[in-house]
Amino acid sequence: MKTMILYASTYGYTQECAAKLSNELAGDVLLVNINTDPVPPLEAYDTILIGGSIYMGQIQKRIKEYCLANADSLKKKNLGFFISCGSAENFNESVKNAFPEDLIKTALSIENFGGEFRTDKMKLSHKLIMKMVAKATEKDNKPPAKPMPEKIEKMAQTINHSQAM
Ligand SMILES: Cc1cc2nc3c(=O)[nH]c(=O)nc-3n(C[C@H](O)[C@H](O)[C@H](O)COP(=O)(O)O)c2cc1C
């Protein structure tokens, strides 16, 4: 079984999640960063797992556009989607904004890998937005962004199980 993990990551959190996911999957796994690597043709792969991180409610544009442009081919594959985000309560909405509805319906696994605010790496505008979001989160007593490695494991188990059948 061959799997491709296609991802985008702005400050590296999703990249680390994608690498962990690849280590936990059985069979051949190719990790592809859509911003730096060429995306190979889909034909050779049985399973495609696609993800990115959420900024102002939206996933990285290249991921969104790739899914839309390749929806017909993706529909024929075992599919999984993941996002990294700071706000678990907006998970369903973020997923809906990120990926085409007909692909979401056929996915074997859709997970929230949690998130991390990597302030030291952020450009100024992101730092300012993040400060505002953090203040609002605290004021509303909402939980802050946190990594969810258990969800990476959950996706790997679901995919490994489906491939063993
Ligand atoms: C400027 C900014 C805007 C963000 N907007 C959202 C958002 O709308 N919803 C959300 O759930 N998380 C939001 N986040 C949290 C990121 O999705 C989270 O930090 C994620 O771990 C980033 O992953 P990356 O390093 O792979 O890009 C935002 C973070 C920043 C810095």
UniProtKB/TrEMBL annotation:
Pfam families recorded: Flavodoxin_5
InterPro entries membership: Flavodoxin_dom, Flavoprotein-like_sf, Protoporphyrinogen_IX_DH
Residue ranges annotated for the Flavodoxin domain, each copy included: 4-141
Membrane-spanning ranges: none
Source domain of life: Bacteria
Record protein name field: Flavodoxin
